[in-house]
Design goal:
Blueprint: H1 2-27, H2 36-46, H3 52-68, H4 71-90, E1 127-130, H5 144-158, H6 160-165, E2 173-177, H7 184-194, E3 199-202, H8 204-207, H9 214-228, E4 232-235, H10 252-268, E5 273-278, H11 286-291, E6 294-297, H12 303-314, H13 321-330, H14 336-353, H15 359-369, H16 376-382, H17 386-397, H18 403-410, H19 414-422
Parallel strand pairs: 2-5, 2-6, 3-4, 4-5
Antiparallel strand pairs: 1-3
Helix pairs in contact: 1-2, 1-3, 2-4, 3-4, 9-10, 12-13, 12-14, 14-15, 18-19
Length: 429
């Protein structure tokens, strides 16, 4: 209220100066204003909290100065107005959620220009801000039941007011668990994009400190910042912050860190969306589990989903369906990120070697250079001769591959491959 009154008083003073200048212009022909530096300082102070009426009065004063011939002073006031306008566009502002808003959350608008919090000692940034768009966030591949569950949760966030009107609290926190590379972070960003919200990703490496009490302080700083804005707070690698407090190998500091995390999650529980991610759910303190109203386990991809990942990763290239089925089959038990890696390597090898090298030989080369990414069974399988491998592929893919398609994988003709799959397996002596 005090700031508003000061701005009104300044506006009145500037309006008086404008009227006085106009009168002086017509009666005395004054060409310059005495003590303009003081007037300029008053205008600059007033424009810290600009509004339309205030800007109009300063513009009037500028016009009056221009009419007296003091164009330099007039131009300086015009520049003050322009600078204030630019600053206002860049400053986060309070929003009252409109009826058409995607998500009804309190807080300021987080902008790319917003200054992010940092650790006081090291100066390291405590969060990264991500603004998901359709161009940067791809739709995750999920099993049908899991996709329906995720969409239901997003729908809750979109209908907060309706739920609260009937006395129900939306699930504003969700824990995503699963093996590394299963797409948990992609899913979190996609969920935020569905609501049109930016994401604040907590940087655990910067938040953790060897100084007593600093980690807890950084946690509070991150949550305080997130609570100011309409955003999704993403706590990746949550197990680093929220380990079980009765672990005999941990010192007392971890208990204080977990307590700080729990307290801040309680404060945010009703006002902001929080997503947690962990590859090691068994390490989380039980109290942290309970703070998340929803828990989603992201499983390893099925054959069908792996095939979809292969097709997407090959884009914009066209790829034979037989190769899609084979790569997906060879990556059974692998996370989606590993499937993408192998397909990307395949694209690079094919681009460099051309069509003279068969797909099977390309796959063998990739496996030799990435032995840790595939199972022992697959590595052993690819060491067999072409005839045995062809039989395995035919049996594994069944109706998804014919003799012609199978031959293309080995750069062999139909008759040769047909003979391979029909001949009885050779028995060792």
């Amino acid at each position: 209220m005090k700031t508003g009154r000061i701005v009104i008083m300044l506006a009145v003073c500037i309006a008086f100066l404008g009227n006085w200048m106009e009168n002086q212009c017509h009666t005395t022909g004054m060409e310059t204003m005495e003590h303009f530096s003081i007037v300029q300082a008053i205008c600059r102070l007033a424009l810290v909290s600009p509004n339309e009426a205030l800007t109009h009065q300063i513009d009037r004063l500028s016009e009056a100065l221009s009419e007296t011939g003091d164009t330099k002073a007039a131009q300086q006031l015009k520049q003050l107005i322009k600078s204030a306008s630019r600053n206002q566009d860049m400053t986060p502002r309070r929003l009252v959620p409109s009826r058409g808003a995607t998500v009804s959350l309190p807080g300021e608008v987080l902008l790319p220009t917003t200054i992010l919090p940092s650790d006081r000692e090291s100066g390291a940034r405590l969060v990264d801000a991500i603004f998901p768009t359709a161009a940067t966030v791809s739709r995750p591949y999920l099993l049908p039941y899991l996709e329906r569950a995720v969409l239901t949760l997003v729908s809750e966030w979109r209908h907060m007011d309706e739920l609260r009107a009937v006395g129900e609290q939306p699930s504003l926190s969700c824990l995503l668990t699963g093996a590394p590379g299963t797409g948990k972070t992609t899913l979190a960003l996609w969920m935020a994009h569905q609501m049109g919200l930016p994401v604040l990703v907590a940087r655990v490496d910067a938040m953790m400190s060897s100084f007593l009490g600093t980690t807890s302080r950084n946690i509070a700083q991150v949550f305080d910042f997130a609570n100011r804005f309409r955003c999704v707070l993403l706590l990746d690698e949550l197990d680093s912050l929220a380990k079980v407090r009765d672990d005999a190998n941990e010192v007392g500091e971890i208990k204080r860190v977990v307590n700080a995390l729990l307290q801040n999650m309680d404060v945010r529980a009703s006002s902001g969306i929080t997503l947690g991610i962990t590859n090691h759910p068994q390490l989380l303190d039980p109290a942290v589990w309970r703070r998340f109203m929803s828990q989603i386990e992201v499983p390893l991809p099925t054959q069908e989903i792996r095939e979809s990942i292969v097709r997407r990763t090959f884009e914009p290239l066209e790829v034979p369906e037989a190769l899609v089925h084979l790569l997906a089959a060879l990556m059974e038990g692998s996370a989606g990120s590993e499937v993408k890696t192998i397909v990307s390597l395949y694209k690079k090898r094919q681009a460099m070697s051309g069509e003279d090298v068969s797909p099977i030989e390309t796959i063998r080369e990739i496996v030799a250079l990435n032995s840790g990414r595939l199972s022992l069974e697959v590595k052993s399988l690819l060491k067999r001769d072409d005839q045995e491998l062809a039989r395995w592929i035919r049996n594994r893919l069944g109706g998804n591959i014919g003799v012609v398609e199978l031959g293309a994988l080995f750069n062999k003709g139909k008759s040769t491959v047909g003979r391979w799959v029909k001949e009885p397996e050779r028995k060792e002596a």
